[in-house]
Amino acid sequence: MQKENNYEIYRIINNNVITSRNKTGKEIVLMGKGVAYLKKVGDTIESSVVEKRFVLTENEVTRYVDVIEAIPAEYFEIAIDTFNQAEHQLRIKPSSIAYVMLADHLNSSVERAHDGIFMRNEMLNEIKNFFPKEYEISKSTLAKVEQISKTKLPRDEIGFIAFHILNVSGGIKNDERIKMIDQVTKIIEDFFNIKLSKESIHYERFLTHMKYFCTRLFSENNTHLEKNDNSLFEILKEQHPNTLKCVNTIQEYVDTAFHVKITMEEKGFLIIHINNLIMKSKMVTE
């Protein structure tokens, strides 16, 4: 419970994230570097150590807390550092969910690397040239992730991290992307005969990937799409033939509606993200 300038710890999610209750009794998530260090449930913390906070509805308690619990604490610490730099240098105000999504991405990138899956970022040079501050912040973030995880990650990750910052700063425009994402979602729902919850954390995660996918496709300098590494796609098409059929339907829609070609490499990325979305969505409903 919130007590003047202090918060009583309701539950400890990790070293950098706890929950408490505000004055009206609603559960709130509190983030801060080392906020739970040497603390236990029932202890109090000063509000000055809290860097981000957000109130949870009943549905959101399960929606976000379960995801946060699965992310190692060190990635939250890095996400907090990243957005602190971005706030100072870019004058942006990231939502608390932005921290969760970035921490989740950092964790996933390391897990993919351990599985030998590396995703190319064909817009890395564009990001470096047009968004130099976001690029440098993301470069620093990547170095911290590599140091903490003792895992070598490709430079492409700088671009993916920068995309999370650009989502907050408004560097990514919407226009036809909204239309495409909405229709792609409908194709997935029809193909797998599933109703996706637009409020779920799994859909938000998918949405982040789709925004970046659309940005690559609609890039004014999209000559990079002609360069194609088919190796990832060749592996995934054999492992997930049913998802490939769904991706082929999406490819037909994109080609017809927007006259944009999807490369084999892009189809590989779609297989990964759609598979994750469907798997997690079914786990929730079962």
Query: Quick one: how many beta strands?
Result: 7
Within CATH, the superfamily of the largest domain carries the name PRD domain
CATH class of the largest domain: Mainly Alpha
Q: Please state how the strands of the largest beta sheet are arranged side by side.
A: 3-4-5-7
What is the arithmetic mean of pLDDT? 85
Question: Mind telling me which CATH architecture of the largest domain this is?
Answer: Orthogonal Bundle
Distance between the termini: 34 Å
Relevant terms:
286 residues, PTS-regulatory domain, PRD, 4-stranded antiparallel β-sheet, globular, alpha+beta, 3 domains, Transcription Regulation, Sacy, Chain A, 3-stranded antiparallel β-sheet
Can you walk me through this structure?
The protein has 286 residues and is α+β, with helices and mostly antiparallel strands. The chain has three domains: 6-56, CAT RNA-binding domain (Transcription Regulation, Sacy, Chain A), CATH 2.30.24; 73-169, PRD domain (PTS-regulatory domain, PRD, Orthogonal Bundle); 175-218 and 230-283, PTS-regulatory domain, PRD. Helix content is 60%, strand content 9%. It has a four-stranded antiparallel β-sheet with strand order 3-4-5-7. A three-stranded antiparallel β-sheet has the order 1-2-6, with no helix packed on it. Helix 2 crosses helix 3 (96-114) and helix 4 crosses helix 5.
